[in-house]
Amino acid sequence: MNFQKKALLTVVAAGLFGSLQAVAQDAQSGVKDLEAGRYTKALQTFQSLATSAPSAENFFYLGYAQLKSGNPDAAKEAFDKGAAADPKNQLNNVGLGAVALAKKDRATAKTLIDNALKETKNKNIDVLLRAGEAYTMFKDAGMNDPAEALRILTIADERDKKNENADIEMALGDAYSLKNDGGNAVTKYENALSIRPNDAEAKYKIGNTFLRGKNYAEAQKFYAQAIEADPEFAPTYEDLAEAFFGSRAYKNASKNMDLYIQKSQTTDVDKLLRSAQFDFLAGDNLKAIQKLDQLKGKVNNPVIQRIYGWAYSGSGKYNEAIESLNTFIKTAPEKVIYDDYKYLGRAYGQLGTPEGDSLALVNLEKAAPLDTTENLYREIGKTLQGAKKYDAAALAWQKAIALDTGKATTNDYFQLGMSNYLLGSRVGRDSTMMMNGDTAAIREAKEKYYAAADSAFLKVNQITPDWSPGYYFRASANYFSDTKGAMATGEPVPLYEKYLEVSDKEIAADAAKKEANKRYMMTAYKFLSSYYANKNDAVKSKEYLTKAAELDPNDKDVQNALNPPAPQPAAKPAAKPAAKKPVKATK
């Protein structure tokens, strides 16, 4: 916020003690601190000036600083004193209107501001400017009126016949910004720059327009220009941090939030908590915890427990994380977001207990539908597979793929395929999947799961055609699902052959993969040899047996098939034992 020089001259004239030059310098210093977001320092300056030179203008600036720092009651007290000091000066009545807006009392605000404009006959540019600014000061609906701001500021703009007042252009830009009219907002800020070249605040506000549109790169560009124009303009660093946060450059977000705190000297708890959050996201959990420890006893905001929980989770203090996050969720349920459940779930998952694993899944499943950054269904699927809950795992992988189909990975489809493949292998064998002994139901279930596996593995082949496991497991799914008999139909044959072709290429590129692929290759060789033997193609059958023998010379089944043992001569029948002569009876 830039302030009019005329007001400063009035302050000078109103000085009651000390040199006029010192009073003017103090006022200019206070204005500069207020512009740069150093509200605490500005408040100290204006409080001192209001005490030493109790003019309407000094009370106005004191009230304005109180309002900007979020203390409307203190602002009202200053504005009331300013109005009493000079009833004809309407700036403080406009300030009282702004206080009413801060309390969402728009009717009172309009009455006060309209009366101030009426008393000055819409001719005082300062009053018009402050009236327009009052209607744009707050972002929450019910606390602003951009249409009324534009009406008043247009009158001020018309009064500025020489087009010398950059503050009017800035305020018009703010009004358009509240209307979400970014084009006109930028135009007005650019007009301000034409009057006041290289103005940091104008460049900063252009950056804000791009930030609201989530054009983070363009926002960062204008924030950089604002910092170059005035490195001490603190608000730029806060919003630059948010722009880096939006583009997930968390280390830069943390760094610039620290600069904002340093330059603004803010004690605002919400800003300090946000800074700790950025530290956590940047991976500096210790720094985040240290900041939170400094706020202990000073913060009546349950969000501190959230950030403690996140930071503890990231630093491996899982019991502390669970305690903090459960406390937060219990005390502030209306503020809970999916990240709270995500970090709580991860902390439970690290406990290594059945109860912890169960609670991990419960919380991750609460977070997953809303988390588009990490796709937690992958994490859920992996956890369920580890617990051998393949039916639930398959559902999780389906959701992972559905959540972001365009970016679904080879692993997503492969794990979906494996979940169904392992389900198929359990049908008729696992006590929970016996289908009451109904062989037809068992056959149908096997076909269903293996068909689902085949479909998923086909996607793996399409996405990553040079990765052999996709072909091997697709071939195996076809083998096990073939109720007519794979040897008769030969459905797995081209898939096993493709697997061996791709596997050979992998080994040629990396000899270390030979041992990793050996088991699957032997299965493929043996199946193909048996298939071609069944088709009376002895040449093909022997070709695959030979390759199997080269891969594993110690495989007895392969060696016996290649070199069947010589038939043993038939054993002669054993000679019958000679009949014993009957023993004579003796008397």
TrEMBL record:
This is Tetratricopeptide repeat protein. TPR repeats lie at residues 56-89, 166-199, 200-233, 522-555. Residues 552-587 are annotated as: Disordered. Residues 578-587 have a biased composition (Basic residues). The lineage of its organism: Bacteria, Pseudomonadati, Bacteroidota, Cytophagia, Cytophagales. It comes from Larkinella punicea. PROSITE patterns: TPR, TPR_REGION. SUPFAM superfamilies: TPR-like. Keywords: Repeat, Signal, TPR repeat. It holds the Pfam family TPR_8. Residues 1-24 form the signal peptide. It comes from the Bacteria.
